[in-house]
Amino acid sequence: MLTAKILDNDPPTCIFIYGIDMIGAAGPLKNAKPETDFGLREFQQIIEATYFEKDSARGLEGSFMWLVEEVGELARTLNSGDPNSAEEQAEFADVLAWVASLASLRGIDLALCVREKYGSGCPRCKNSPCQCQHRSGEDL
Ligand SMILES: [Zn+2]
Question: Residues near 82 by Cβ (< 8 Å), separated by ≥ 6?
């Protein structure tokens, strides 16, 4: 069970207690509607237009702490037993928004780096689906 205790500071402080027990699974995304996808680069640009000024003022460390809080909130929804709920969808969106924001603060084109690393399948074995023994590609 992963529990995340959020201390409501600004930036928030998140304490993770390791051990994860995710409940349920809705399955992989197979039937997404293309018209609902505006692409990772456009998403990053929307997040920049919306938040770059505030996130720049907050700084990298404070913005990173917001990402950590959102990861904690995602952990809570993944443990909720209600897969693919509106709340869970919103938490995924929040985590991705903070990742995009942090990438922008570092001048990183998220779409480009994701394509370079994962565009040809698993970065380690170069297969899709991955043929590595463990997801990380490292022997435990
Ligand atoms: Zn692999």
Answer: 24, 88
